[in-house]
Amino acid sequence: MTTTTGRPGGADSGRIEITGLTKTFGQFVAVDGLTFGVEPGRITGFLGPNGAGKTTTLRMLLGLVRPTSGTATIGGRPYADLPRPLESVGAALEATNFHPGRSGRDHLRVLAAAGGIPDRRVDELLELTGIPAAARKRAGGYSMGMRQRLGLAAALVGDPQVLVLDEPANGLDPEGIRWLRGFLKHLASEGKTILVSSHLLQEVAQTVDDVVIIANGRLVQAGPMEELEGTPGSLVQTSDAAALAGALRVADVTSSVQEDGSLVADTGDMRLVGDVALRAGLPIYGLRPQRADLETLYFSLTEGTNRNLGDGAAPVGAPTEGDAVTGQEGANL
Amino acid sequence: MIPAVRSEFRKFFTTRLWWGMAIAIFVAGAAFAALFGFLLTSETARSGEAGVPTGDATQVASSVYTGGLSIGYLLLLTIGVLQIGSEYRHKTISGTFLATPRRLRAMLAKVVALLGIGAVYGLVSLVGSVSVGAVVLGLRDQDAFPSGTIVRTLALSLLVLGLWALIGLGIGILIPNQVAALLIGVGVAWIVEPLIGFAMSFWEFGREHVAQFLPTSATNAIVNAVSNGPDEVRLEWWGGALVLAAYAAVLAGIGIWRTTRADIA
Ligand SMILES: Nc1ncnc2c1ncn2[C@@H]1O[C@H](COP(=O)(O)OP(=O)(O)OP(=O)(O)O)[C@@H](O)[C@H]1O
Ligand SMILES: [Mg+2]
C-alpha cells in the first residue's frame, strides 16, 4: 500500500482537532464542550458508555451533524472544506450502511465514482479486507463480520490519511477482532491517524496508543494508554511478604502487602524484585507483572453517569476533570 | 459535480429496480399504444359525441405514442422517491454526503441523474409505443406520422418523465418514510387529482382557470393528447411544460433545501 510520504500538507494534514465542540438536541446536551486532539501515526481509542456522545461527536467531525458550537477540523480544515474528502478521511460509521439489494463490490464502486477513484482500487480493497468473492453477492445476506469488513473497505477507498471508525469491533467474533487489531496496527504503522470508538475499554486496550474517554458528552480523560494504566506493578508470592517489603524499601521500591499474603511491588522490573528477594534470602513462589485493572478503572471514570439509565434529569455529580483524576487514584494506580 | 452524477447513475443501475422498471415501462408503452390505437380510431371515437375522447389526427397519434406515460410517469415518480428514500432507509445517505460533503452539489447530482434516467426510460417507452402504435394506426388506415408536432411530442415525453422523477425526489425528501411517500405520491397523482378534476368540472371557474394547472392535466397538455371532452380547457404545450417544471422545481427545491441543512443521524 502507499505510504503517507508525498501527500500535500505532510503529516500535519492528519491531525484531528476538536475544540469546544457542543451539540444540543432541544434541551438535551449530547456533547458538551469537548476538546481534544488526535495525533497521526497513532491509534486513538474514543471511549465512553452507551449514549456518551461518541457517535454524535464523530458525525460532527465528518460534517454530517451541525455543531451547536465549537469546531472540529482535520488537518486544520472542517471536513466539508476538504478538496478530495475520500482521499483525506475514511469513515466507517455503522454496520448497516448498505443497500441490501446492491452487492458489496457495487457499493464500493458507487463510492469510488463519487470520489473520482478508479474501480481498480475497489478490487484491491476487497482483497485487502479478505472478502473478494462474497462481495459479488447482494449485501442483504451479509453476516455482521462481512458488513464490518465491507465498512472498512469503504472507509479505505480513497487510501485516506485519517480513519474514523465508529465501533468497528461491534458484532465481530474473537477471530474477527484479532484480524481487526492487526489490520489497524498495520495502518497506523503507515503513519495514518486512526480514531476508533468503542464503549469497552478492554476491547481496545491492547490496540490503542492513546485514549480519549467521555461520559455525558464531557471529557473525563485524554492521554497515552500507558498513562492511564499507570506504573506497572509486580505481584510476588513469598513466605514473608512484610520482610520482602522491607528489603524492597531499601532498594527504593514501594510495595503493599495484600490480604492474601502476597505482595505488590510498584515496579515492572521483575528481575530487580527477584534479585532483592534472593539477597534477602526469601523464596519466590510466584512472580508476575500486574497492570491496573482496566475494567475497574474505566467504571470509576464513567460510573453512575449514564444519563440514559436515569430519569433524564441533568446528571448530578457528573465527573469534572478533577474528579476523574481522583477516580484514577482510587483505582489503585 | 460529474463524479457525483456518475455515482448517482451507478446507485440506480446496481440494484434490480432498474430493469424491472424498464420492462414495465416498455410493456406499458406498447400495451397502451395498442389499446389507444384501436380505441381512438373506433367508430364511437370519431362520432364526436360529448364525453368521448376526441382529437385531430395529430392528437390521436400523440395519444397512442404517449398513452403509456400515464403508467410511466408514476414509475418515474417512484424512482424519484426511491433515489432519495432508500438512501434514508438504508442509511447510505451518510456515505453519499461523506463523498460529496457539499450537499447542494450532491443533491443537484441527483437532479441531473434523475433527468437523465427520465430520458432513458422515455426512450424505452417510445421504442415500445411507437413501434406498436405505428403498426396499429397503419392497420386502421390512419396516418402514423400526421405532422412534425409528433416529433416535438415524443421529445417532450422524455422531459415529462424526468420532471415527474424530480417531483418524486421532492416527495421522497419531504415524506421521510419511503412507503408513505410512495403511497401518497401515487395516490395524489392517480386518485386525488382525477377527483379534484372531476369536482372542478361542476364549477365553472375551476374548470376554466384551475383544472388545467393540475400536474396530470399539464402533462397531457405537454404531450398534446386527445381531450376528454369538448369542455376541457388545455394549456399550450409550453405552458404545460412550464407548469410541470414549476411543480418539480418547487417540490425538489424545498426538499433539497431541507436536506442541505438537516443533521444526518
Ligand atoms: N438526533 C437526535 N435527537 C435527539 N437525541 C439524540 C439524537 N442523536 C443522539 N441523541 C442522544 O444523544 C446522546 C448521545 O448519543 P450518541 O449516539 O452520540 O452516543 P454514543 O456514545 O455513540 O452511544 P453508543 O455507545 O450507544 O453508540 C444519546 O443520549 C442520544 O439519545
Ligand atoms: Mg454510537
Number of strands of chain A: 13
The name CATH uses for the topology of the largest domain in chain A is Rossmann fold
The top level CATH class name of the largest domain in chain A: Alpha Beta
The residue-averaged pLDDT of chain B reads 88
Helix and strand topology:
The complex is a heterodimer of chains A (333) and B (265).
Chain A: E1 16-25, E2 28-38, E3 43-47, H1 54-61, E4 69-74, H2 85-88, E5 89-92, H3 104-115, H4 120-128, H5 144-155, E6 162-166, H6 174-189, E7 193-198, H7 201-205, E8 210-215, E9 218-224, H8 225-229, E10 233-238, H9 241-250, E11 255-257, E12 263-265, H10 270-279, E13 284-290, H11 294-302, H12 321-330
Parallel strand pairs in A: 3-7, 3-8, 5-6, 6-7
Antiparallel strand pairs in A: 1-2, 1-4, 8-9, 10-12, 10-13, 11-12
Helix pairs in contact in A: 3-4
Chain B: H1 2-13, H2 17-39, H3 43-47, H4 57-66, H5 69-89, H6 93-99, H7 103-139, H8 149-174, H9 178-200, H10 204-209, H11 215-222, H12 237-261
Helix pairs in contact in B: 1-7, 2-4, 2-5, 2-7, 4-7, 4-8, 5-7, 5-8, 5-9, 7-8, 7-12, 8-9, 8-12, 11-12
The structure holds adenosine-5'-triphosphate and magnesium ion.
Residues 54-55, 166 of chain A line the site of magnesium ion.
Quick summary:
The complex is a heterodimer of chains A (333) and B (265). Chain A is an alpha/beta fold and 333 residues long. Chain A has helices at residues 54-61, 85-88, 104-115, 120-128, 144-155, 174-189, 201-205, 225-229, 241-250, 270-279, 294-302, 321-330; strands spanning 16-25, 28-38, 43-47, 69-74, 89-92, 162-166, 193-198, 210-215, 218-224, 233-238, 255-257, 263-265, 284-290.
